[in-house]
Amino acid sequence: MTMAQDKYGVFDHLVSGLPGEEKKRLLEKIKKTALVSGEPLVDEKQRIVPKGVDERYAKLSLFTKFLYWIIGLFTGRQTIDIYINSLVVSEGRSINEKYPGMFDYEENLLKSGFKHEIQNLKEAARFFYAVLDSSVQHDRGAFFGYLVSLQAPDLHKSLVEGTDPERISIIQPDDSDVKLRTCALEFIEQRINGIEDSARRVLYENSRTLIITKALASFLYDRLIMSFTQKGGEETAYCPANIVFAQLCELTNILFSLKVPSLDVLSALFLFSMEKIHGESYNQDEELQKFLNHAEKSILVIRNFNRNVPLLSIIRCTSRNFLWEPLEISGGEDWFNTYKNYWISLTNKRFYEWIREKHNAELTMSLEHYFKGMLMEEIDNAWSEKNDTGIPVNDVLALSFILSFHKLIFMNEINIIMRPILLDGEFYKKENRIEFIEAYNIVIKLDDTIKNFNSAIGRGGEFGQIWQQIEGDMQSVPVRRRKTQSLLDQVNQASFKIVSDAQNALISTKNVLCGILEHGDNAKYDTISNYAQLAGKGNGFSESIKKSVHLIKEALEILNRINELNSEEAQNNMLS
Questions:
Q1: Dist. CA 485–CA 571, nearest whole Å
Q2: Apex CA 97: angle with CA 95 and CA 102, to 5°?
Q3: Per the CB 3.0–4.6 Å rule, which of 156, 493, 508, 535 could disulfide with 541?
Q4: What is the pLDDT of residue 386?
Q5: Averaged over 270-294, what is the pLDDT?
Q6: φ, ψ at 238 (rounded to 5°)
């Protein structure tokens, strides 16, 4: 994986790429052979809410109504309420008859049969936990991007191509980077807002199903199971229904809201989770088939739980409320904004990388031109692709450039003209000579300064020893992280000072040399009184100063561009 991919993010690369023909063929094959059934998880008859109680009461015999009236007279209750309570009693007796070992209506106790079914449901639901946690829970936007790439490849392809910085720049070559990015973001708004209602409904249902499946997978089964009391073995386990009533209601709401995830959704869940870990270096066909087979078994357990456990009736009996009905769980409504915001974020990252790579390419060309193709010096103890055990240094490129500038440019060309000025030049203003000397002393020592820093971050150096101690430290991760950050702060402060001092010294040198060239004694940087004597005959001396000024200006421009790249990267890290 390249550094750009590390920056970009694994999930972003999964989404930003176009699904290959091999993956399309795989999904088509799976659709033909997969056994996942779309049969509803809950029998529609169970969803029927008891209605028409008044009408049913009206059909009772006069004797029965009179009996309820007598009971109401003594209890102070409405006869209709007494009738509804009788329905609850009948429901409780029906549970005892049809589902033995599940619930004791008279004692209001959940029994060992219920516990056994809950344990089975827990195992089945938890199968989905890992893939849901890594996708819907933590990377929802990326997962929706991946799901749409499989379900709506044309939409996905248009978004990938319509937000490609390189492609847009070719179409609109005269536009600025900012304008190109604006065009890409406008395309996202237009394309995603244009999704047809039918497609939106499908994606909404998928989103809602995933959220509810995650709720089922993360339900606190153990808390419910641990509420059972054991007496003499598993066969006599029981739990008062009223102490877990809230959990029973929550589980019922989840189960009655849940629909079977579609084959596309299940496939996307698996492929997304596996590809971010293994890439494509695994047997997709075989592993996906195994996953779908296991998913079908888990779905079958959930379906059987709904058939074998009269959860709704138990809640009505426990609450003595024959009209109690489950609530539909909301969720998934924000899929549209999540999907769109993800593409906006992804496009911003793509443009950041594209601009950064373009600036890096321009900088590389400038460096090659400046050093006439000669290789730059390396800070070999700093982290790099060649040295992955080194200490990361923010200003490593700037230090490498300054060291190369000192060895290849300054010592060979600029120092030749600076030494006679330093030794024999007679400045009109004393402060200019002092500034010139101070700048020269900093620049002439840059080689030693940077090499000393390189040694300090080496294995035996001041910073390097601490770095090795932290790597071998057995303390907790937060403690190690704080120590690492503290060391990196010190290292980067030291490198920043070297770069900053070098820049300031070069600026002072440039200003003094420009003052000498201008031959003016009124400006802040004046000329030297014996300029003609130093120059001698001909214009070689003046030309050498001009060339030195030009080389220093170029060096300062390159350093500014390096600093800008570092600043852009730091800002992007903060935004990420």
A1: 18
A2: 50
A3: 535
A4: 87
A5: 74
A6: -150, 160
Pair 354, 165: CB distance under 8 Å: yes
Assigned token pair, 518: 């201008």
| Backbone Cα Rg of the chain | 38
- Owner of token pair 């802040």: 524
* pTM of the predicted structure, to 2 decimals: 0.70
Judge contact between 484 and 477, C-beta under 8 A.
no
The pLDDT-based confidence of 81 (bands split at 50, 70, 90) is low
Cβ neighbours for 159, distance < 8 A, ≥ 6 positions apart:
187, 188, 191, 192, 343
- Report the candidate in 266, 279, 203 with the shortest Cα–Cα distance to residue 20: 279
Instruction: List the beta bridge partners of residue 239.
Output: 110
- 512-540 exposure pattern, b = at least 16 Cβ within 10 A, e = fewer: bbbbbbeeeeeeebbbbeebeebeeeeee
- Rounded CA-CA distance 333/331 in Å is 6
Distance CA 5, CA 10 (A): 7
CA distance 496 to 485: 16
Terminal C-alpha separation, the chain = 19
Q: Output the DSSP codes for 441-493.
A: HHHHTHHHHHHHHHHHTSTTSHHHHHHHHHHT--S-HHHHHHHHHHHHHHHHH
The Cα–Cα gap between 209 and 201 comes to: 12
Most confident of 89-93, 427-431, 494-498: 494-498
Distance of alpha carbon 348 from alpha carbon 353, whole angstroms: 9
Sequence letter at residue 296: E
Q: What is the SS3 assignment for 552?
A: helix
Residue 512 has pLDDT above 80, yes or no: yes
Q: In Å, how far are 23, 215, 279, 348 from 1, measured between CA atoms?
A: 21, 35, 11, 21
Pairwise CA distance, residues 155 & 195, whole Å: 8
Residue 369, pLDDT above cutoff 90: yes
Residues belonging to the chain = 576
Q: State both tokens at 531.
A: 């300029």
C-alpha–C-alpha distance, residues 213 and 505, integer Å: 64
Q: Is residue 247 within 8 Å of residue 223, measured between CB atoms? A: yes
Alpha-helical (H) ranges within 231-328 are 245-257, 263-278, 284-308, 311-319
The C-alpha angle with vertex 280 and arms to 276 and 282, in degrees rounded to 5, equals 105
